[in-house]
Amino acid sequence: MPAVLLVASALCRPARADGSSARPDDPRPTAALAACASGDVAKGIAILGALYAETRSPAFVFNQGRCYQKNGQLEPARHRFAEYLRIGTSEPPEDIRRAQQFVKEIDDTLARQRAAAPAPVPAPVPVAAAPVSSPGEHARTLRIASVVLAAVGVAAVGAGVYLSVKVNSISEDIDKEFANREYVTDGAGLQRKLADGARYETWQWIGYGVGVAALAGALTTFILGGSSPVWSGSSERAALDLTPAISRDGLGGVVRLRF
């Protein structure tokens, strides 16, 4: 039977525990039916709510669920049917089964709607743009790097030269002390000098290697960065001169950076 007829059937059943029921000539059930049928859900629900408050008849809660359901409001419809099943333990078994069937239908429909709904698109996360340096700023950075590398290279080569001098000095000391002797009386001293000489020789080549690499990097960055001075906007050309210096004491070099 149509669900809205439950309003009439509710009025025909015996009065509830509070002894109150809607009058047979009460026009409000018909008004509620008309409001729900015309899409005025708020008015229909309000009338049915007032009737339930007066009569405590669960049938009016059932009809609230039907009013919502007929107008496509499935979530509130399900809530009202669930409330009807909670309070309508003494309702006719047929009505209880219908309410349970409506709840199942609503759950199935909501599940299909959720499955068909497109996945939410996450909001784009703003990414801060990396600052773009101007060509002039990039060239200036390269020129500064060339000066720093040149200084490191000169220092490293100078350290290599100094260590070369130390190696030669230790070698001369060993020759003076032990070369013309048939027996070595100070073996510990000889071993110490030999160890010092080997250590200085190792660091000497490390210094040369670092120095040459740094000077090569200085020359490369200087060429890539152009030739204007790092501290002014002058267009005057600059030059980087690298002059190797070789002597009996070792390998060195002279760097001249002209701006």
Describe this structure in words.
Helix content is 64%, strand content 7%. The chain has 259 residues and is mostly helical. Helix 3 packs antiparallel against helix 4, helix 4 (58-70) runs antiparallel to helix 5 and helix 5 (74-87) packs antiparallel against helix 6 (93-116). Mean pLDDT is 77; it is low at 1-20 and 229-234.
Span between N and C termini?
102 Å
Strand order of the largest sheet: 1-2
How many helices? The count is 8
- Average pLDDT, rounded to a whole number, is 77
CATH topology of the largest domain: Serine Threonine Protein Phosphatase 5, Tetratricopeptide repeat
Number of folding domains?
A: 2
Order of helices and strands: HHHHHHHHEE
Instruction: Report the uncertain regions.
Output: 1-20, 229-234
CATH class of the largest domain: Mainly Alpha
CATH architecture of the largest domain: Alpha Horseshoe
Largest sheet at a glance? 2 strands, antiparallel
Q: What fraction of residues sit in β-strands?
A: 5-15%
Number of strands: 2
Structural class: mainly alpha
**Cα-atom Rg, whole angstroms?**
50 Å
Fraction of residues in helix: 55-70%
The outline comes out as rod-shaped
